[in-house]
Design a protein that fits this description.
Heat Shock Protein 90, 15 helices, 68% helix, five-stranded mixed beta sheet, 486 residues, alpha+beta, disordered C terminus
Amino acid sequence: MADSARRLTSRARHLTDRARHLTNRARQLADGARHLTDRARYSNYSAYSTDGAGYLADDVPPPATVRLQLNALQALCRQTFGVRLVMLALGAPFSLANTPEYGASRVTVLCAAVLGIMASYAMLRDWDRFGPRLLAHPALMVLDLVFVATLLLAASSASPLAYATVCTPLLTGLLYGWRATGVLTGLQLAVLGTVFRSWEQRPGTAASTLLVAGFCIAAGIVGVTLRNLVFRFGAAGQALSEANARLAVAEAVESERARLAREMHDSVAKTLHGLALAAQALADSADHCDPAVLKRQATTVAQAARTAAAESRALLSDLRGSPAAPVHLAGELTARLREFTARTGVETTLSGTSDGGSGASGPALPYPNTLLPPPTAHHVLSIVDEALENIHRHAHATRAVVELAADGAAVTLRVADDGGGFPAPAVLEDLARSGHFGLLGLTERAAVLGGRVELSRSPLGGAEVTVRLPLPTETLPTPQKEAAHA
């Protein structure tokens, strides 16, 4: 019998170590999953250049942030064609009126202006149709350069229509970056030089040519700068999103770690600790050979083992997200208080009051068949268990009172004892540093439900823990709901 008890003790301690190992393993798996998620996100983003060039000619859909950047560039391109359309429409009458006899005919200027207006309107209206082709094939900008050359040769650089050609380097800078902008702007400057030679006999041609050339260079620089700013802002937004995602994952992992630690402390670890103590007591009593004592202690060990198995299954079901039925709070509290009294010898009393009601001894609550959602009931019952366990371990009390009061929008839970009470003042951080981690877990559970915890002196002479938990209206029991449920 003594050897069997020692084996049970060893097995219980092994189960405790195994539970701790599983907790650490769960933390490692969570960290590994977070690391893999970060690597996948980074590789997915870094597969493309930060300036968005990798999306211009490929059919692979870009991430959401890069799509926003491309949409911003497309909007700027549309506005560029809109500006050109307005400049051509306003400048054409002045150019036609001022066309000299020795210059190009008015018909040529009119045709160039009309073609430019039609092309600008088509790009402004159907950019979604023509824009991707223009993005994928930079050589198409040569057609725009041909239009610029025709317009300048027909109307001269001194014409108001000449300023519409400034949109070409601006558009090139928005679409393609420095290299293409430098090439096309250089070609446009060459066209301006040719136009100057053709119109140099006209007064003011040199100044107008230099002014248009300066505008073209400035427009190209502005276009490239806007492009880079858009993609840099996009990259910064992407980095911020990644940082927020990593922070959210870290917070979720930390929250899950705290939750697992709290659940292990309040359920399996505590039960296994009691199992180890019961098995040790069984081993110590084996030498006395009292069958009644041995049977009682063996029954305690078996019951603790079954409880640990049930708590482990409940914890696994919670981790898997398995649905659970609503919990009868009064029945669960009665059963737990009865088990606590049988295990510790501390006399317990359960009472309850409703809105405007009076307390009643025994397990009579406002509605005896009170139903709570499983998560809420789990936290409420765990708070009661932790408070009772603290009474047993630290208060050295002989009596405990549990009161559950409902006032319509919240539930107030009071657990009082006639023990030694809390050290004054009762600060949770100080209690946690001194080993009272259960009170810290109790506070965390109340915070999960949006409640608060107060520590005070009990009228019985010991400590009193008061927890107020707000409940949604739809979860509060009513006589009609209870009747319908019955």
